[in-house]
Write a structure and sequence with these properties.
It is built from 13 helices and 21 strands. It has about 500 residues and is an alpha+beta fold. The two termini are about 20 Å apart. It holds the Pfam family SBP_bac_5.
């Protein structure tokens, strides 16, 4: 297996951008990369949505700050930063960078991108509960927050805060085609079926070794695995565990992910408004059976919301049960999930059996994610199974916890509003980075789990497929990097 750590030099270099793009002029012998991805764009590749992570994984849209393998902030489109006072951070913008449309990167243009994100509705998750005021002065961007925020540099590393050219912003629409700064130029988006990128021949950093990228979106896991097996793809993300045994083991990399398979229970209405029934559901679930059965041992039983991708999370204190399970007595519940992650429908089927053995009567609802997300967020189901990245945005789990479990969280599927949880999250959010913050995060995790609103079941490992001729693809636990300037296929 290749090393799971991303060398810091790669993390730094992929963000060093170039002058105006001249796509298509490939070096002799340079090949294109055929990439197969799991989920199609949800919002037309709007970088203020989760689609931003696709743009980041293609090395086309970049941010002021990157995170290194340890999760610490490093220079990217900003060469450095300092805290001017308790509320204000100053970022120095890199010189001699041009957007793919040829316009130069300036502090004002960088500030405009950040202001667009701060004003978006809904906001990017990384800005949940954060009020930003962004101004430009000379070659500096000044970012002020309403309250002290020790994680501003981490926040600005989120792909949802990518810096794009002025022409990308057209009213409420944000168009990333030809407006990024990265090693590859996004030239075409074919709805939800694919995208085309060309090498940026005047990239600031080392020129990309590949001539371009051809992207296909294939939600069906069997079809993704077949594309790798038959040589139709160079790189395939999210190989289902059920397909791994059918592939050459030398083409598979297994990466522990900061991703937790969690059962969210609706605390606002329906059966699980009752804490006793939430406790009954928790007692009914056998996570080990899910790991050994559905995931064929390629996952880890969850002890909490945070897993082995964050080794310090194992230092959580013991947490005794706070509520005794109540009798289910045939209580009817709706259990929902989505098909885009191949294992989740099978997880749902096993959970249905476990919950029915505990006395619940379970109706199962399974759809594509695009057709179920809105209902889940509106509280249409009693229980929802979600595969959730816990440090996707900032490298710090507080943003995920605020988004999913605070009263004002934008992704609060559990419909949870608990003053003790909010207080613990506020304490974690204002604690400086380091060991003290980690202890505060684990205290917030305990407060969330004590409500019974979320039942963490297992921590996933991602299986990435690389054809034997592929060199330099990144195995990134945060799902931000995949193809960089160094990636190529022979």
């Amino acid at each position: 297996m290749r090393s799971l750590l991303v060398p810091p030099v790669i993390l730094s270099l992929i963000a060093l951008t170039g002058c105006s793009a001249m796509p298509g002029a490939a070096d002799a012998g340079a090949g294109r990369i055929d990439l197969v991805m799991l989920q199609p764009p949800r919002s037309g590749l709007n970088p203020l949505s989760d689609d931003a992570f696709k743009l980041s994984r293609w090395s086309t849209a970049e941010t002021l700050v990157n995170l290194d393998a340890a999760g610490d902030p490093q220079p990217a489109l900003a060469t450095g930063w300092s805290q001017s006072d308790r509320l204000t951070w100053t970022f120095t913008i890199r010189r001699d960078v041009r957007f793919h449309d040829g316009t130069p990167l300036t502090a004002e243009r960088a500030a405009r991108s950040l202001r667009a994100a701060a004003a978006a509705a809904p906001k990017p998750r990384i800005l949940d509960g954060v009020e930003l005021t962004v101004t430009a002065k000379d070659d500096k961007v000044l970012v002020a927050t309403a309250t002290p925020d020790p994680l501003v540099p981490h926040r600005l590393s989120s792909p949802q805060l990518a810096i794009l050219a002025e022409k990308a912003y057209q009213g409420r629409t944000v168009n990333p085609v030809g407006t990024g700064t990265g090693a590859f130029v996004l030239t075409k988006v074919d709805g939800t079926s694919g995208a085309t990128l060309e090498r940026n021949e005047r990239y600031w950093g080392p020129k990309a070794k590949a001539a371009g990228i051809e992207v296909r979106f294939v939600p069906d896991g069997t079809a993704r695995a077949a594309a790798l097996r038959t040589g139709e793809a160079d790189i395939v993300e999210a190989i289902p565990v059920s397909q791994a045994a059918l592939l050459d083991s030398q083409t598979i990399s297994e990466v522990p992910m900061p991703r937790t398979n969690t059962l969210y229970l609706n605390t606002a209405k329906g059966a699980f408004k009752d804490p006793g029934l939430r406790a009954a559901a928790r007692a009914a679930i056998d996570s080990k059976a899910l790991v050994t059965g559905v995931y064929e041992g390629r996952a880890d039983v969850a002890a909490g919301l945070l897993g082995p991708a964050l080794p310090w999370s194992a230092r959580r204190p013991a947490r005794p049960a706070t509520v005794e399970p109540g009798p289910a007595n045939g209580t009817k519940i709706t259990l929902a999930t989505f098909t885009d992650r191949a294992e989740l429908p099978e997880v749902a089927a096993v959970l249905r059996q476990q919950l029915e053995r505990a006395g619940f009567e379970v109706e199962l609802v399974v759809r594509e994610y695009a057709h179920i997300e809105a209902d889940a967020l509106e509280g249409a189901f009693d229980a929802f199974i979600l595969s959730r990245a816990t440090v996707l945005d900032s490298g710090d789990p507080v943003a995920y916890m605020v988004s999913d479990f605070s009263c004002e969280g934008s992704f609060n599927i559990a419909q949870l509003c608990d003053e003790r949880v909010d207080a613990a999250l506020e304490e974690a959010a204002r604690t400086p980075a380091g060991e003290e913050r980690r202890r505060a995060i684990l205290a917030a995790e305990a407060a969330i789990l004590n409500t019974g609103a979320a039942i963490p079941m297992l921590h996933e490992r991602v299986l990435q497929g690389d054809a034997k001729g592929v060199t330099g693809s990144v195995k990134d636990p945060r799902e931000r990097l995949l193809i960089t300037a160094d990636t190529h296929a022979r």
